[in-house]
Design a protein that fits this description.
heterodimer; A: 233 residues; alpha/beta; D-Maltodextrin-Binding Protein, domain 2; 2 domains; 7-stranded mixed sheet; 5-stranded mixed sheet; 34% helix; elongated; B: 370 residues; alpha+beta; BirA Bifunctional Protein, domain 2; 3 domains; 9-stranded mixed sheet; 3-stranded antiparallel sheet; 15 helices; globular; aa-tRNA-synth_II (chain B); histidine biosynthesis (chain B)
Chain lengths: 233, 370
């Protein structure tokens, strides 16, 4: 059986992923045109390359549809329940860096820590008649971080699939949990990250689906080690 | 009523609940999800079965009965006092084990005589369980109002009182809170120099104006969520909290209180002695507590005990909490007073509310063992 590797299908993530595989000794040729969603490694008929969107890669890894994938850790942790048991992060690749953070309106001068946020959330309903509203596309990470890690129960998630930083100003939510690389968009929207409000430091990773048979497959070990070697160089 | 898919003792149970004056009420199995998430918090989402209506409204399989029964009461604009009896399947997401359970119970709404109403539901739960199981049950009683009174009497700032009360019933959070009270950390420095000045000089009104002006500059609508006054007030409070240290002697008093686990019959006098010895003014809460114990009258009070740290970390619980367990420690019934719930669910006026739920599957297992 071939080993399948899923790579991002477009943008800088794709360029960087191709580059790292090249450095690892697996130069990838895209079948047919640039637009094709299939690829192969020259001289390695036993490795198959699939180009997918980053979130699809996370999903395919979760159901074991591919052996390896390059995608953001945020998508793995958010997209898969029990990600630890279903996938293994083989290498952190050093690109696509961004943090998932809890950010509040800068004018909330009294809120600098998660403990402050807990106080405000506990009181929110009594003061405003509704629960504290959190805009995010990261349901799972938000629940884990607020509820499990920081014991904050009294809030409501408002789903936000784009331009989340604008939600507080637009009155759709009070605070946000979102991904940021430089923080400049947050600043432009008068939002501030809490001092202990980093939910996840994410970057692109080589992720392996935990499949039966991987332990005996020399190619699985070979790919993981080669990519790790390429990152170290 | 279906004749299958019910616990074998359903008839006996229904008769027992009716004998306690419960008016049988039925609520749909499919419920709007909002009221559950809004009262219990977002974390509940993982633990209920949710779906969407064709128009996009969030729905769920009922995870319990209290909220649907209370909402039904509000919608029907029924007068009070009222006693409702309910029973049927409830649904909870779990990794392992069954996801459907049978619950039955009573909701007692609108009785202004709280001590009597509390005693009545405890008596109901115990009596119904004894009908089904015989004796050998034990009942644990907790009281959030007594805890709140102790915390207030210790003279802590309001902000600390709120934090402690919020953590009541969650031993891990409460322990962390007590630790930071014993060893407070200084608050972070304010990046806003003018605000820092106003905090230092204690000018709360000027601070609120300053916050309001900054809100205007940055386009934050003061009607959207938090007002300038609320932010200024909490900023002052936070500075005070960071300065507050709970004296070791006061901490010891609080910890002594939390360690109380005594037979219920002797609990009022035990608490009175504690108050006298420590000089804590908790008279009002103690009066209510004692009235409840007195109202329990002929209930099998010998098998009841009071555990001071027993509470439920949900902000609509206000006073009594209790549970009934069998010899193996399985919780067969849980209940309490939630005077804040009815207004949260949309009632125009506060309505006192107290009730309990029986876990019928556990009762069935307990019966099988007897």
């Amino acid at each position: 059986m071939n080993v399948t590797v899923a790579l991002p299908s477009k943008g800088r993530m794709k360029e960087e992923a191709l580059a790292i595989f090249e450095r690892a000794g697996f130069p990838i040729a895209q079948s047919g045109s640039e637009r094709s969603y299939r690829g192969r490694v020259e001289g390695r008929e036993d490795i198959e390359i699939a180009f997918l969107s980053a979130s699809e890669i996370a999903r395919e890894l979760g159901r074991g549809g591919v052996d390896f994938g390059i995608t953001g850790e945020d998508l793995i942790r958010e997209g898969l329940a029990d990600s630890e048991t279903r996938v293994a992060i083989e290498a952190r690749l050093g690109f696509g860096r961004a943090d998932v953070v809890v950010a509040v309106p800068d004018i909330w001068l009294d809120v600098t820590t998660m403990a402050d946020l807990g106080d405000v959330a506990a009181d929110f309903r009594a003061r405003t008649g509704r629960r504290l509203a959190v805009a995010t596309k990261y349901w799972r990470l938000t629940q884990q971080f607020l509820s499990a890690t920081h014991g904050i129960q009294l809030y409501r998630i408002v789903e936000s699939l784009g331009a989340t930083e604008g939600a507080p100003a637009a009155g759709q939510a009070d605070i946000i949990v979102d991904i940021t690389s430089t923080g400049s968009t947050l600043k432009a929207n008068h939002l501030r990250v809490l001092s202990d409000g980093v939910v996840l430091r994410s970057e692109a990773c080589l992720v392996r689906a935990r499949c039966d048979g991987h332990a005996e497959d020399a190619r699985v070990k070979e790919i993981a080690e080669a990519v790790r070697g390429a990152v170290a160089r | 009523m279906p004749l299958i898919d019910q616990p074998p003792f359903a008839d006996e149970l229904q008769a027992a609940l009716a004998a306690r004056g419960g008016e049988a009420v039925s609520v749909p199995m499919i419920q709007p999800a909002e009221p559950f998430l809004d009262t219990a918090g977002e974390d509940l989402r993982r633990r209920i079965f949710m779906t969407e209506s064709e128009t996009g409204a969030s729905l769920c399989l009922r995870p319990e009965f209290t909220i649907p029964v209370c909402r039904r009461h509000i919608e029907a604009a029924a007068g009070t006092p009222r006693r409702y009896a309910y029973g049927g399947p409830v649904f909870r997401q779990r990794r392992e084990g069954p996801r459907e359970f049978f619950q039955a119970g009573i909701e007692d709404l609108g009785d202004p005589e709280r001590a009597k109403a509390d005693a009545r539901v405890i008596g109901d739960a115990v009596a119904v369980l004894e009908t089904l199981l015989g004796d050998g049950l034990s009942t644990t009683i907790g009281d959030q109002a007594v805890f709140e009174a102790v915390v207030a009497a210790l003279g802590l700032p309001r902000g600390w009182q709120k934090r402690l009360v919020h953590a009541f019933g969650n031993p891990v959070a409460l322990a962390a809170m007590l630790e930071s009270l014993a060893d407070p950390q200084p608050a972070d420095d304010l990046a806003d120099a003018r605000a820092a000045e106003l905090v230092a000089s204690g000018e709360e009104a000027a601070l609120a104006r300053h916050v309001g002006a900054r809100m205007e500059e940055t386009g934050y609508s003061p009607h959207a969520g938090r007002t300038p006054e609320a932010i200024a007030h909490r900023l002052m409070e936070k500075t005070e909290l960071a300065r507050t240290r709970l004296e070791p002697s006061a901490l010891a008093v609080l910890q002594e209180f939390l360690s109380f686990d005594v037979p219920l019959a002797g609990a009022p006098s035990e608490l009175a002695r504690f108050a006298e010895r420590t000089g804590l003014a908790i008279g009002e809460a103690l009066k209510d507590f004692s009235a409840r114990v007195a109202a329990l009258g002929h209930a099998p009070i010998a098998a009841m005990h009071y555990r001071a740290a027993f509470g439920r970390p949900l902000d609509y619980y206000t006073g009594l909490v209790f549970e009934v367990t069998d010899e193996d420690g399985a919780v067969l019934a849980g209940g309490g007073r939630y005077d804040r719930l009815m207004t949260m669910l949309g009632a125009a006026e506060p309505i006192p509310a107290v009730g309990f739920a029986l876990w019928l599957d556990r009762i069935e297992r307990a019966r099988a063992k007897r």
